[in-house]
Write a structure and sequence with these properties.
The chain is α+β, with helices and mostly antiparallel strands. The protein is built from ten helices and twelve strands. The radius of gyration is 18 Å and the shape is globular.
Amino acid sequence: MSGPPGGWRGLDLAAAPTDAPAAFCADLSAEGLLDAYRHGLFPLPAPDEYARCLNEALYEDQVAAGRITLLGEAEAAYRVAWWSPDPRLVIGVGRARLPRRLARRLRNRDDWSTSLDQAFPEVLAGCADGRDRHWLTGELRTALARLHERGAAHSAEVWADGELIGGAFGVRVGPVLSLDSMFHRRPDASRVAIADLAARFAEAGGHLLDVQWDSPHIRTLGAVPIPRPQYLATLRGPAAGRPPVGGRPARALALDAPRPTGGSNPFS
């Protein structure tokens, strides 16, 4: 299966729920996955039969009412929920900021460094470890690995004395890099990964990082909500290039960090 017939362009997100899946579709091929991101969707696969049945029980009434689109046979389709939240949490690449205490700590140490695309499988594994919601299934990881081989999925890594201590990964579509997950093995390492990814994506001509879900943690990095139509319009902008790879000292992020903006929305 390679995605819905005709791709995702036929899905009317204007009528989709703001706080529930926009669709159910079992396709997790690399091609279908990338097409979904291009249309403002990201997947949350059910890791087991119980989770699949729970999807059906929770959302079958909205599917029957036509608010959520069901593509394919229900028994298979409910295995993967496709989300497009409204509002969408994003970080402008020039607006990513480190908390003051972290910036101060980074300026006074030289043992942390960052890189891009040097340990993609390890970052995926780090993001999957110890999570209560095991949405990062083997099938999804296989598709993401294929997108990484094609240069469409990227990982940011944070290192301390050769040890991977944090990271983040996402999929690049047009001027947006959609962040799927992050992890840390030392406090604040995931924040450093996101700030580094924002800096590199800015150098490649990127516009924003899509962080998908709201949380106090992501707000500290400068994330703000924008309406779903505005996010979808941004996806259609000029495509960014591939972010630069190579090791960098993490302390450079603290030296270049933008000043806090008081939570104002730079996209309004």
